[in-house]
Every structure is written in structure tokens, then in C-alpha cells.
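To whoever picks this up:

The parser on our side crashed when reading a file containing two proteins. I've narrowed it down to the boundary between the first structure block and the second sequence. Both blocks are reproduced below exactly, byte for byte. First block:
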Amino acid sequence: MLKGLLQAFTAGVLLAASVGSANASSITVTGIGYGYTNVPMLLNGSTTVTNEYAVQILVNVGTRPYIAYCVDLFTGIGYDTYNTTIGNAMSYINGLRLAWVYTTYAGGVTNNDQAAAIQLAMWDIVHDNGDGLAAGNIRVQAGYSPTVVNQANSIIAASLGQTSYNATFLHNTVISSGAPAQTLITAYAAQIPEPSSMALMGVGSLLTLFGWFRRKK
């Protein structure tokens, strides 16, 4: 989640990997919750620090609010309404492991450190298969908040070999252009009504300031 222009990522591949019946719907990103917007990270071997939004993302599915986390670090999303395909934990790489992280830790978040640690752990699991935040393509700058980094590394270690189906993956595209937006993970799918059984009301006027959760230049 980095500030800047939305990049075209491989959302088509992700959606093609969906298993079971995927439901068309829409979501609205309404804000951010606990976490930090300035986590210094080194990405893809770069020695240049980029400040990342390791935060909860607040969304509405229809009219119901949910707390979500970003799955794909290198694709953006902002305050807007998106076309969404609802997928299960098998619809994303390491999705079963991510679902276990979400169901095990997300419900107990009460502060910024915990939320940031969950988000960092998820990015590391997705992009580096959980090799820790000091190695691989997803690294946190040395010396940054030992509390957050240690919590994240503990989550990564605990998640090894764990699986769960009790989370929902929201595969998003921009309504106006069909461009890919971040895939998000949120609450158990059974809590989200089928699109055919709920009236998805149009959200009022969209925010004119997007505040993309991408790289902060």
C-alpha cells in the first residue's frame, strides 16, 4: 500500500485462480484504522527506503462495515468504490495461511503496533513465503520499532504450516477503467450476504481526493 499511481498488477491471474463460486459485488474503502502510515521498508532489493501504510483498511461490503488488510503490497487502492469478486482462502497464493493469520490475530487488535505487525506479516507471507522481515523482497529497515518487527516475525513463524478457510478475499478492480486494485482479506465469507440477496446501494458521492495507499515519495 504505497502512495502514488495505481500499477497494473496480475489481478487477472489471481481471479483465474479462484476456487468455488465467486460472487460479483462491490466494496467501498471508507478509511484506515489502527496501524502506521510510515513504516520504512526496502523492497525488491532496493536500498532506497519507502514508507509504507501498514494499517487496517476500513471497507463497506454493501452497507456492512468490515476491517480488512492488504494482500498485495505492490498494487494500490484508495478511497473509492470498486467492483469486487469475492473469493475464498484458496483464491490467492498462500491464502490458507493468510486466512489463519487473519482469524487468529485480527480480532484481538487494540493498538497500532498489533495492526502493523499483522499487515507486515501478511506481506512477508505473500511475497517472500514467510522468510522474516530481515530477508527477501519485503524487508523492514533495520532499527525500526523492535516491538512491531518482533510481533510480525512471531506471527510469521507461528503461521508456518497453518491453514484456515475462515476469511474472505476481495479481488478488486476500478469501476471506471477495470484496472486492478489491491486484493484485500477480511472476515469470514459466511458473514457477507450473497449479492443476489442484498441490495447493494450506490454509495453517495465519491471522495475526490484519492490518497492512494502506495509509495510516499
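<<boundary where parser fails>>
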Amino acid sequence: MKPIGSNVIYMVAAAVALAAIPLVSSTMANAQNQSWTSTFNLELCNFSTTGTNPYFILQPGYQLVFAGIEDGEPLNVTVTVSNKTKVVGDGIITRLVEERVVNSETGDLKELTKDYFAICDKTDSVFYFGEDVNNYENGVLVDHEGSWLHGSDNARAGLIMPGTPLLGSRYYQEIAPEIALDKAEIVSMNQTVNVPAGSFSEVIEMRETNDLEPGIEEDNLHAPGIGQVIDHELELVSYGYLK
């Protein structure tokens, strides 16, 4: 659900620049990655822990529920925007979004993750500032693999959803060397998608890859006013605000 969920000076200028700003991390400084944006001028943003952009809702109580078969296992994934915040590197206050992954047949908890997001006031772009991951096997906590946080161990925030998505935009969603180097390319802007939660139009499709897992691609789709509707092999089954 990266994850859901997923973003810099002026809105249009930032979106156009996604394909032009050079990479700065030595981990990513090879020729094939030079067209992927990893620098976002975060210092120019005033960040908010609540708000929305066309394809991402960061309002406490908003929830997305996905279901399906992934890697041969039936899963139910619940993504909930909490009423909690967390201060990360550079003193940035972020909103905690909880992602709960459960085997839908056995009820066993597979993963419980706290993701941290904030919205830039200049662009309405949503940035991803890290995650605290708890991985489980047979209901027992086994590790925290995949955890990272902006400002720690050379990790930096990535863009999870641009305020103005443009076809062909390519950018890093997570910048945590040796842990998470996910990136996304917007490959379609006007799809119609039917999932259990409903039929949605003007859907954008993001093709996501990871520098740490070459050759693996996942397609994730987002509907305006809703957020993510397809997470790789999982489909949205319900959405809305908790009562």
C-alpha cells in the first residue's frame, strides 16, 4: 500500500520538474536513474497534517479497505488516517496513517504499519516521511523490516502524490538507502475502473518499481476524490469516514 495512501515551488512548476531534477544520492547516481526526481525543495513548503489533493485524502477518520489475493494469500488491508501526528527530521509534523494487513481466511495479523505523511501548502503535493513497520508470523511480531524515517540514517522524504499529476512524471516515493527506494511513473491519466467499491472515472495509473528489487513492477490506480482504488492485486471494497 505504499502502499496508499501515496507528491517544489509552485504547483505546475513542480509537476513539470519531476522529470528534470537530477538525483543527488550516491546510491542512486547511476545513468539509468537520472530521469527520476529525488529532490523536492521541501524547505520551501509549509506542511499541513490535514487536507486533500485530487487523489489523496489526509483527513482523520478517512478509511480505505482493500481485499484480494496477493502472492497466493487472501488478504484484507485497512488503511486509516488517524488522529495522531509525529514529528520527524527538520521538525516537520506529519500525520500518522495506519495500515493493517490481515489474512482474510485465518484472521492472522500479517503487518501493522504506521506511515507518516504531510501536504505541502505551495503545491498540494503529499509527501511520505517514513514508516514504522511491524511484521508478524502466526500472530507473533518477528521484525521491523522496512522501517525508515526522514532525517535518520540518510533517509529523506519522497513524493507520494503530486498536487498536479502529469502524464510521464517520474519520481521517488521513498528515499531510504538500503531499505526503501520505491519510485513511481504516471503511465495513464484517464482510466475507468470497476472495483467492488464502485465504478470510478478519470483514474490515474502509477507504475511503481524499486531500485532494491530490479525487474519487479506494480500498477496502482487512484480515483479523484477517493484515493487509491487498486493496490497491485488488491481492490478497494469500501471507503469513507469512520462513524
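After patching the parser it read the second block fine. The chain is about 5% helix and 55% strand. The radius of gyration is 17 Å.
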